[in-house]
Amino acid sequence: RETLVKRGYFGRAIVGLGPLPAAQKLYFRPELEETSPQRYNPDEARRLWKAAGMPDGFKIKVLTSVVRGNLRGAQVLKPMLEKTLGIVIELDQVDPSIYFRRGTAGDYETNLAGSGADYDPNDSLYDFFAKDSKFNSFGYHNPAVDYLLAKQFEESDVKDRVKLVHTIEDIVAQDAPLAFTPHNKDLLAIP
Questions:
Q1: Is the torsion defined by CA of 154, 156, 158, 160 positive or negative?
Q2: Is residue 74 scored above 80 in pLDDT?
Q3: Mean of the per-residue pLDDT values for the chain?
């Protein structure tokens, strides 16, 4: 993951440990680098790939664009994943307008996408993982996650909300509808 940050994003990103960016300091858990089921572990990735019955030489297209460094990220990930899993990746590079249209419609085999540093975890969680949410073009649905998303949104006690958000993040990481790649370091100026 560090290689991806350095080579794919020229250091202008941080390692993605889950859906919550480090900018959400109250909710972000750096310990996920060691505890997340999505932590870097190529041996476990190969074991899971084989256990799922995936063959060597499996071919997959990755939709990408120059948006937010996604093309560079895909170019760095391609040989890493090909070596680790024995797959063949074809990069499907398209113009940004086509990329967003196809991404939103779910018109891809797999997609290298990203999200900005959302200010509230509801944006990082609900927008992607609720059944009918605006960025859930990959068909993820877990009724427990939908229930917890609604509950955390209504929770007024900060400590209880943090617990709910962490529970959602843990379920999503285990379900693995997405692989969490780096979070871009967004630059924002507000007059």
A1: negative
A2: yes
A3: 89
